[in-house]
Amino acid sequence: MPSSVLWAVDLFGKVYTLSTAGQYWELCKDSQLEFKRVSATTQCCWGIACDNQVYVYVCASDVPIRRREEAYENQRWNPVGGFCEKFLPSDRWQWSDVSGLQHRPLDGVALPSRHWEWESDWYVDENFGGEPTEKGGWTYAIDFPATYTRDKKWNSCVRRRRWIRYRRYRSRDAWAKIPSKDDPEQLPDPFNDLSVGGWEITDEPVGRLSVWAVSLQGKVWYREDVSHPNPEGSSWSLVDTPGEAVQISCGPHDLLWVTLWEGQALVREGINRNNPKGSSWSIVEPPASENGIVHVSVGVSVVWAITKDRKVWFRRGVNSHNPCGTSWIEMVGDMMMVNVGLNDQVWGIGCEDRAVYFRQGVTQSELSGKTWKAIVASRESDRSHSGSSSSLLSAGCFFGDEVRGSGESCAPSDTDASLEADRPGPDQPVPAESVDGPRNSRDSSASGPGTGRTTERAVEVPGPATQTSGPEPGPTTQTSGPEPCPGLASSPAELPWTNIDLKEPKRAPGHSAAGFPETTGLSSMGLLPLGLEEPYGADDHPLWAWVSGGGCAVEAHAVLKWFTVQSGLSPSVQTLSLSIMPAQTAAWRKQIFQQLTERTKRELEHFRHYEQAVEQSVWVKTGSLQWWCDWKPHKWVDVRVALEQFTGLDGARDSILFIYYVVHEEKKYLHVFLNEVTVLVPVLNETKHSFALYTPERTRQRWPVRLAATTEQDMNDWLALLNLSCCESRRVHGRPSPQAIWSITCKGDIFVSEPSPDLEASEHRLPCDQMFWRQVGGHLRVVEANSRGVVWGIGYDHTAWVYTGGYGGGCFQGLASSTSNIYTQSDVKCVYIYENQRWNPVTGYSSRGLPTDRYMWSDASGLHECTKAGTKPPSLQWTWVSDWSVDFSVPGGTDQEGWQYASDFPASYHGYKTMKDFVRRRCWARKCKLVTSGPWLEVAPIALGDVSIIPESPGADRSGHIALWAVSDKGDVLCRLGVSELNPAGSSWLHVGTDQPFTSISIGGCHQVWAVARDGSAFYRGSVSPTQPAGDCWYHIPSPPKQRLKQVSVGQTAVYALDENGNLWYRQGVTPSYPQGSSWEHVSNNVCRVSVGPLDQVWIIANKVPGSRSMSRGTVCHRTGVQPREPMGQGWDYGIGGGWDHITIRANATRALRSRSQETTTDWSGEPGLPSTPSRVAGALLEAHGPVCC
User: Fold this and answer.
1) CB-based contacts of 431: which residues, under 8 Å, 6+ apart?
2) Exposure of 799 in the CB half-sphere (CA atoms within 13 A)
3) Neighbours of 838 (CB within 10 A)
4) Where is the Peroxin/Ferlin domain (predicted)?
5) Which residues pair with 256 in a beta bridge?
6) 379-413 confidence digits (pLDDT tens)
7) Cα distance between residue 11 and residue 897, in whole Å
8) Angle, CA 332 vertex, CA 330 and CA 336 arms, to 5°
């Protein structure tokens, strides 16, 4: 079978192709444009871009596309001068077309568009009827028009000759904009949908195509004269319809269906080789009156449709004699759209995961097929990311060296859902040893997007089409072949390797609290603790918006590579199966108990004469929870949970968590050793009280064990108990140490990790995915710490909080919490939804959108429906404290009623209406409040936007006050006086003057203060010292080229900055004599937050990192290889995530033991062999004199 390609568009508007002979999606060569949808044939692909213009992509071939242009030179005989250019008044033009009716001078023949080029100049055709003419190429006749001959006769009164010039189509393998005849820059009407077909109607001209389109006004247009020699066609012609159309589909032959506003379908009749546009319309009713048709796709003799509830329907009885068909059959699966390609093969895009599915089993005898199967092919550009899951130190794995421009988004802006990779099903046995290490054994097939139906319901709905000729089908109900059960007992499916949904765009700065980068919520459908509303892993498997199989030929016997996971992945990446057969379970338990018995006998044999001092005991807690199953279809299933805690003879405790579930009436279980658990994270969910459990292996795979309780109290009990058990297993108790690493999730939960000396070691470094994080009560958005135990935080409502020295609070009570220093804490945040409207010629702007439009009440992305009544607080812990109100502070401005206007969804919005604005939106905001408890006291009365505490390295003088700088929510710079270990809240604020509002500030270990202004520029504060805590003046530091900075972090000597496009920069040339540095050097991209510690160690929150096979947003990463001679480091080590929002490493001054050869280092001036002591560096800095301040 010769290879052909499948075309698809992702949620970012990028067009990809997937060859039937390949296994990777390849980005279209001309990738500058962003498209809404495409329609493909074997030779070309038509598409509608986000500018509503139509483009065609003609595939390259060895045979060029050439078109001949002709012009005729005419002459009449004159008795005086012979043949000349003097004509009778009734004669044709001197230069004309073959008919003589149109004036056609040579210099008036222009190229139809810029996509053509001339091959040569005009020349005379000296052949006539296959025979050569006399010199000059003239042919003769009695008069115009008449029969011409190549021989001149006595009665030849007129003559003519043909001039020829060839033009060549040059835009091959590139998107060419289709010009309009009247105005090359504009279409007759902005288009909303487009479909290409009709190549089987006739062979003349060669490669003739029927190109149909639907405009935003609901009109149907037809492109005239599209063929292989003329791939652009000539002009658009309007085809009258009995209603307003919203979507159209054209088959290879004579089928053409259109969906209407009202949910009905129009069928075009009378299409044939002589009339490719057809003659009349017939109406087909939807399967159910309450759910109209929103999408339809046709083939040679099949029609598939999607209704408003996203159900998939198949039309029976469709053929050339009866294009309306007879009845509807509901198929399994929920789809966003379907597309019928060559051989009536069917592709679709899943409603929830936005994956591309292929309909298997489609044959001429069974056109409806059997089952949906997900295409798991990855993108060509992601091959380099599919290495071993244990390779965590690849510096260039995803963080690139290229600088992101302002036009590039670090996260999806108006998109997306999550694609999932293979995950073993419940039926696959795993040997006993695989409990500790997953084996590489699984079925690579993927289950369909069904939602619980095991067979396809064949509910026939009679079609009230006006013409129903043809044989009547027999039974009224039918099943279309066996369908695998998509429930818990389904076959092995794909494993989603990510826990972050990229569909949620970053909210505009105007929506979030001033001075804060907007964050996302934790996933309710995503498989991760800290994801957004849907499980999305980043760009490893893109989220698809459209698919077209019109150019993809798949034979019934063909073996495709689309459904198998590519090689090159480690076993731990390719499979994670903890289900064990009963026989193996029994053998495993028997072996464990036998070994324990033998060990006990052996150890007690020599100590029988001693009195037992500690009693060995086993304590068990059981309960009922729900578990998010590890295979498709991912859903919550009821499980029994048992926590077994063992107390050994030495008094040490260890625990195992067992999760018992049932598959195919067979009991199975998985278990987790709590001494391997690295973090327990509450999950942000509007409907469930859930939490996630990570181990190092599951951290690398971005796939935690996720559990949910029926009540908040039940979840808190389990969370507190498991946290306590984890801490006991690791012997971690009490308050965090002064040098602890603090972090915050996008849910606002606070976590700490005790640093290991090996964490910053140059050799035998501890991977950061093995760090143990425990939760501290409270709720914050920003946290900043110092190695002397001073910790400050800022809430979502800009309230400043100071750490009191306790631990616990919130859901952690009893042994998991201190008895003092726990106080009530509250926080307030805003929830935003958008009201969307589309312009209607009759009613003006209204809430009646196109079926393909976003919801009329949605989130910022438009992908989730969010009504005032249906929108809930971020989680069950939040309560509303205000009513909905219009937000007038959104970026881009609004009109007096809060509306923003644009040409279409999505687009750039502005606060005024123009003639081309067909849509508008309005932002509504509502405040919610959370009340909890934790070891935090409020610092009144100034609301803060950012805070920074001086990082102190080992050996620094700890007798004086601690320097603390902050930026208020209004942009004022403040310096806190009187901060010490005994008084961490300080005594008063000292205002530091600025000429513009600031957003970020950081103070380094040598009192060097850097700040970022609201306009994105950087500033350095001169002469800051313990005796002069506020310094004397600001020095302006130029930003990196074409970038606007948003955050800065200063360590002992290193200065790092982060711009609005996620680029991380290092300040070169910082010395005691010139502390402002000389230039910015790019380090990495895809960064959301950076923290530089007292050892100049660099930690970040990454926007995108490669997991095992996916990306995760909000992941803690550690810069490796940072040394005095190489301050920028070498690579990244990936830790916990995604869903983390903030981290501070500035309290961690734990230095690894070094050999004698490492005792000497390089000072700021680059002189080797001199120990860089803090006092020496600080003294040099204080003596330095900078340039004249600005």
Assistant:
1) 439, 584
2) 18
3) 19
4) 64-125, 137-170, 826-887, 898-931
5) 250
6) 776 655 444 333 333 333 445 556 656 544 444 44
7) 31
8) 90
Q: Do 569 and 390 touch, CB atoms closer than 8 A?
A: no
State how far the Cα of 343 lies from the Cα of 553, in Å rounded to an integer. Answer: 7
pLDDT surpasses 80 at 812 = no
Longest dimension (CA), the chain: 145
Alpha helical stretches, state H, 530-581 = 571-574
Alpha-carbon distance of 138 to 124, in angstroms, equals: 9
Find all residues with CB under 8 Å of 336, minimum gap 6, and list them: 295, 306, 310, 348, 349, 350, 351, 354, 545
CA separation for the pair 683, 39 (Å, rounded): 41
Cis before 47? omega within 30: no
Residue 1177 identity: V
Q: Find tokens 């470094």 and name the residue.
A: 765
Task: Tell me the percentage of the chain whose pLDDT exceeds 90.
Answer: 28
Pairing of strands 1111-1112, 936-939: unpaired
Of residues 75, 15, 4, 80, the one with CA closest to residue 43: 4
Tens of pLDDT, residue by residue over 919-940, are 999 999 999 999 999 999 999 8
Residue whose entry in the numeric block shows the structure tokens 């992305």: 861
Instruction: Say which DSSP state 173 is in.
Output: T
CA distance linking residue 834 with residue 305, whole number of Å: 29
Burial state string for 599-638 with b = 16 or more CB within 10 A and e = fewer than 16: eeeeeeeeeeeeeeeeeeeeeebeeebbbbbbbbbbebee
Which residue matches tokens 């902005």? 190
Q: Which residue carries 């658009």 as its tokens?
A: 236
On the question of pLDDT at 492 being above 70, the answer is no
Q: Is 311 helix (H, G, I), strand (E, B) or coil?
A: strand
Instruction: Please tell me the pTM assigned to this model.
Output: 0.53
Q: How many CB atoms lie within 10 A of CB 884?
A: 16
